[in-house]
């Protein structure tokens, strides 16, 4: 029995190690490629480090310009986009989820499930209609057009918060109403403080989505004053070929903020994954 337990545990660790290697290998390739020169990229195996390594790609990335703007400007655009989008998602999603979970009005459930059904439609399908709408109202290549499809909430976020609100005891709300609290007071003073785990989950998911968003920013933006870092990295691929060393340096710089967030909020991220699975 003991030998079987040892063998099963050894197989389990072997599977976990193989999974970890497969997961981390693309990130390792990004780092190794960013530390190579163009000749080393073609002469050294992709999974081997260059000797000696070089930081020239990072120097070119921060000292040079992509089109007519610096890479730091793209990073700043992405930070601004992520912060505003996350704040908008938290505010509007919370209000909508509370209405669907606690307020009573005609057609509430039908409206909720109809809105939730939009999750079945791939985002790619709605890109062209969204672009045509933005063109009609003059929001092409503007911050309003960039944020409009996401800032007012998402079906998944509203579903997550609604399910969490529905799980809170109704006695808390009844007691608050007896004390004279209104709907807004109940939401802000009772439900929101109790919903920190769900709000943490939504914050993490929205931050990662906003930071990695590529297709819609690529379609809606054309000027350098509204481009995000993902589109900026793609701009390094020109008509004469791609500068893979520079692209990998930019990709690694774009990954650093998310790595820092993961290291600082490991427990919150794990808790959010557990909460997402339970809900």
UniProtKB/TrEMBL annotation:
<keyword id="KW-0813">Transport</keyword>
<protein>
    <submittedName>
        <fullName>Putative sugar ABC transporter, permease protein</fullName>
    </submittedName>
</protein>
<feature type="transmembrane region" description="Helical">
    <location>
        <begin position="140"/>
        <end position="159"/>
    </location>
</feature>
<feature type="transmembrane region" description="Helical">
    <location>
        <begin position="198"/>
        <end position="219"/>
    </location>
</feature>
<feature type="transmembrane region" description="Helical">
    <location>
        <begin position="12"/>
        <end position="35"/>
    </location>
</feature>
<comment type="similarity">
    <text>Belongs to the binding-protein-dependent transport system permease family.</text>
</comment>
<dbReference type="InterPro" id="IPR000515">
    <property type="entry name" value="MetI-like"/>
</dbReference>
<keyword id="KW-0472">Membrane</keyword>
<keyword id="KW-1003">Cell membrane</keyword>
<dbReference type="GO" id="GO:0055085">
    <property type="term" value="P:transmembrane transport"/>
</dbReference>
<feature type="transmembrane region" description="Helical">
    <location>
        <begin position="246"/>
        <end position="265"/>
    </location>
</feature>
<dbReference type="GO" id="GO:0005886">
    <property type="term" value="C:plasma membrane"/>
</dbReference>
<feature type="transmembrane region" description="Helical">
    <location>
        <begin position="74"/>
        <end position="100"/>
    </location>
</feature>
<dbReference type="InterPro" id="IPR035906">
    <property type="entry name" value="MetI-like_sf"/>
</dbReference>
<feature type="domain" description="ABC transmembrane type-1">
    <location>
        <begin position="75"/>
        <end position="265"/>
    </location>
</feature>
<feature type="transmembrane region" description="Helical">
    <location>
        <begin position="112"/>
        <end position="134"/>
    </location>
</feature>
<keyword id="KW-0812">Transmembrane</keyword>
<dbReference type="Pfam" id="PF00528">
    <property type="entry name" value="BPD_transp_1"/>
</dbReference>
<keyword id="KW-1133">Transmembrane helix</keyword>
């Amino acid at each position: 029995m003991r030998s079987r337990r040892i063998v099963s545990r050894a197989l389990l660790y072997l599977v976990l190690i193989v999974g970890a290697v497969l997961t981390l290998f693309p990130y390792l390739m990004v780092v190794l490629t960013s530390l190579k020169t163009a000749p080393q990229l073609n002469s050294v195996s992709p999974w081997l480090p260059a000797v000696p390594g070089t930081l020239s790609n990072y120097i070119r990335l921060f000292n040079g310009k992509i089109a007519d703007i610096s890479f730091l400007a793209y990073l700043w655009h992405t930070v601004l986009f992520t912060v505003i989008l996350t704040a908008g998602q938290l505010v509007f999603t919370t209000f909508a989820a509370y209405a669907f979970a606690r307020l009573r009005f005609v057609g509430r459930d039908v409206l909720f499930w109809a809105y939730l059904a939009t999750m079945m439609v791939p985002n790619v399908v709605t890109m062209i209609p969204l672009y045509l709408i933005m063109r009609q109202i003059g929001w092409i290549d503007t911050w309003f057009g960039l944020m409009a499809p996401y800032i007012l909430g998402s079906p998944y976020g509203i579903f997550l918060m609604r399910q969490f609100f529905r799980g809170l005891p109704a006695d808390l709300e009844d007691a608050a109403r007896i004390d004279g609290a209104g709907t807004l007071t109940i939401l802000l003073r009772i439900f929101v403080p109790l919903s920190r785990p769900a709000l943490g989950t939504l914050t993490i998911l929205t931050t990662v989505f906003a930071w990695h968003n590529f297709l819609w920013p690529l379609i809606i933006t054309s000027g350098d004053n509204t481009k995000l870092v993902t589109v900026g990295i793609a701009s390094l691929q020109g008509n004469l070929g791609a500068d893979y060393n520079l692209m990998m340096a930019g990709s690694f710089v774009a990954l650093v903020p998310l790595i820092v967030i993961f290291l600082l909020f490991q427990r919150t991220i794990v808790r959010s994954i557990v909460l997402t699975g339970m809900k």
